[in-house]
Specification:
single chain, 175 residues, alpha+beta, two-stranded antiparallel sheet
Amino acid sequence: AVATNLIGSRVVQDLVDRRFSTIAESAAAEVSGLIGTAVGVLQEQRSLAAQGALPLDDSAALGRRFAERLRQQKQLAWISYSDPKGDRFVGATRRADGAIIINHSEASIDGGVPQEAIAAADGTLAAIAERKKPYSVVGQRWFTDALATDEIVVTGPYRFSEGVMGLTLSARWLD
């Protein structure tokens, strides 16, 4: 009976080890795919900015562009542009219910309190009345780290202002 238990125990351990190995390989492939997608979007946005093809001075148009990009890249949670001049942030984020929200904050507008709107697939915006805390991009680690290098920076995992955990990939672009 002892030999059977030892053999059974080794078989179970071998199965558990293989299962964990499969899970780890699957998770690594998924994370690699997500990072590859995020890097591609960052490179695309940086290239478009360098070509003058992003409406960086028009927060509403930029937010709509980011919202549409999120619709195409369903595995990404948000895309944004930040500018230390004016402590300005424009982004689009995907809520847990799938709605895409455009967010804009600027230190000189309403003390940096974000203005938010739901971005419908047809391009219409529905303002969200809920007041949030003021947001400052210049103190965010992902932002300051990106300003320090020409490389793509990975920050996290950390808790986003929405309360969920995630990673941020960021890259600077200089005019």
